[in-house]
Amino acid sequence: MSHSHLFEPLTFLHGPPMQNRFMLAPLTNQQSEHDGTATEFDLDWIRQVARSGYGLVHTGAAYVEGCGIAYERQLGIQDDAELWGLTQMASAIREGGGLSSVQLHHAGHRANPRLGGIPSPASGRTLPGISALTTEAVERIRDSFIAAAKRAQLAGFDGVAPHGAFGWILSEFLSPLMNDRKDKYGGSIENRARLTIEIIEGIRRACGPDFQIGWRLSVERYGLLLEELREIVWEILDRELIDYLDLALWDSAQIVGTGTFRGKRMLSVFTEIPRRGVRVGTAGKIMSARRSAELLEEGCDFVLIGRAGILERDFPLLVKANPLHEGPKLPVTAQFLRDGGLSERFINHMRGWESFVRPGSP
C-alpha cells in the first residue's frame, strides 16, 4: 500500500472526519499544575502538535476524580475550574485543523496517596489492608467518567477516550486476576466489562450523537486474557458503542506467545473482528513512514504515534514529505529534545522511560 493512503480522510460513526490516518497517542507528560489545571507548558506542547499534521490529537491522561490521580503534575478534568485550560487546548487543536480528544483516566489501585490519590482496587486482595471498592463507589467512579466527558464537550473537544489500558481502573476490572468481585461488576467477562460499557453508554447519553468516543485497550499483562478481551471487543464493535478502538500494544508487530492464538500477530486477533462502522488502530513502536503504511495493509484504519511524535513533533508532515522517513534512533540526548521544543518538565518525565533519554545526558 502506498504511503499516500495515510493521508486520506477517515470518517466516523459520530462527529467530523479525520483529515488523515495519524492520531497523536495520549502522552502523559507531567506539565500541569499540582491541582490539575493546564499550564503554559501544556498549551505550548498542544500548540506544537496541533500544527504538525495529525488528524486527531489526544491529551495526556486526565484524571476524572482527584482520588484517581497517578502522577505528579497530571492533567485533570474533575472540576469546572480546569475548563479554561482545557478550552485553550481544544481551541489550539481546532485551529491546527485536527480533531481533539481528552483521555479520561482513573488510576484505580495505582492511585498515588502522596498526591491525594486513594488506592481503589477492584479486589480486596490486590493491596494489603485495603478493601475492594463498594458497588456504590464503582458507580460513583462511573459517573465521574461521564461527568468528565461532558466537561470535555463543554471545553470544545470533539470527543473523549476512556483509558482501558495498562492496569488502570478499567483494565483492572477486566482482569480475572485483579477482579474477584461478587457483585454485578465481577465474575463473568460480561460483568467485568460492565464498568467500561456503562461508562461508554453513559457518555453517549450525556454528550449526544455528534460526540466521538474512543477506547484505549491493552491486551497484555495484569492477568488479562486475550480470548476474553477478543470476545468483549467483538461485542462492543458489533453494537457500535464506540467510534474507534485504540489498541495500545507494546509492539505493533508482536506475535502471540501462548493460548488459542499462539503464533498469530497480536494485531490480527482484533483486526479480523467484524468492525461494522467502528475504526480500529494501534500504537506500538511505529517509528517510520514504512511501518505506518504497513499497518494500514495489516488491517488498521489509523495509526497512533507516540514516541516518534515526542522525538519529532511534526512526524506526519515529515512522512508526507518523504515516504522513506525514519525517526531518530533511541536513546537521544536531553539537548536533542530541548532543541525540538520539549520543556524541562516533559524531558524529566521522559527520563523515567527506559532507553529514551541517554543516561547521564544533562
UniProtKB/TrEMBL annotation:
Which terms are listed as keywords in the entry? Flavoprotein, Oxidoreductase
User: Known InterPro entries for this protein?
Assistant: Aldolase_TIM (IPR013785), NADH_flavin_oxidoreductase (IPR051799), OxRdtase_FMN_N (IPR001155)
Q: Locate the NADH:flavin oxidoreductase/NADH oxidase N-terminal domain: which residues?
A: 6-320
Please give the start and end residues of each transmembrane region.
none
Instruction: From the Swiss-Prot or TrEMBL record, give the protein name.
Output: NADH:flavin oxidoreductase
Organism, by scientific name, is Shinella lacus
